[in-house]
Predict the 3D structure of the following.
Amino acid sequence: MVKLVDTLGLGSNSFKRVGVQLPSLVKMDYAITSMLAVIKTGLMNRESSIIVPYKSLNRGFLNLLYKEGFINGFIPFKEEKKKIEIVLKYHHGKPTISDIVVFSTLSRKLYISCATLWKLDTSTQTFVLSTTKGMLTGVQAKKNNIGGELICLIR
């Protein structure tokens, strides 16, 4: 949880008046890293499915994982609209995701250009980028000739 200190002495609503929107940005970035940690833990514990909070950014990331074949699917709850169930995928008893390395965190954003992306090996690993065209893999970003924020690496 982020605690904002009122150094100006303007009161508790001073951050909204000044136009600082840090809490919403923090929650959005925290949602992705939190979801990745839950996925990692679920795979280590051989869970068949896990539940994560519903965020539009999470849904875009899960859609990318599904298209790339890393998960069997995801189902938003109808009763509780703020949760998503992720059905994890295993091949011969081993998880399809062997490792997730997070690059961008709350305190450190890592941006990568398309020229740098061409230098990386994408044959055995999948890079996930947040771009102006949405969440893309490294291969998709190369095809679109676009760079972005490097979210994570999936092996």
